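Revision sheet: structure tokens.
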Amino acid sequence: MSIGVGIEVDLPPGTEATLVRLFREHQLQLVRMALLIVGDRPTAEDVVQDAFTALYRRLDRISDPENVLPYVRTAVINGCRSVLRKRNRPFAGPAPEPVWSAESAVLLGEDRRAVFLALRALPRRQREALVLRYYLDLSEAEIARAMGISRGTVKSTTARGLAALARRLDPDEGRQS
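Predicted:
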């Protein structure tokens, strides 16, 4: 089967249907996760599409079907990291500000927008850990696997991220009376 110009992949029977089902069931959730990390929808969609393309190319190396979704999540996180690294290069220009359409503004509401902007201002690792924990509701072990860090680091990073998020959302919390 050909997936693009010059790319041929031999897949076991039924694999393509499995990938289509996986894409349909998880694409939106993965795009939303990537959006929370990179901050703009077109880039988030590109990252997820690239992750599924990479999965398709490497599917013959994945022996356990239970590993497919964690593989895609890890690929999305790594893709987001790559985007953020490129944005931090001096010649890449500033990161685009999120564009709030009338539809998305109504859907998100002011509170959700404030959380999104506060989350976006966190360091990358804290933002990733919080998105994986509270948006995807992954366990510490699943987060550790997706991010390539230990469970202890997940715990401390999540705790620091929550504290920083609370400070950003309630600046009076850090002040003493």
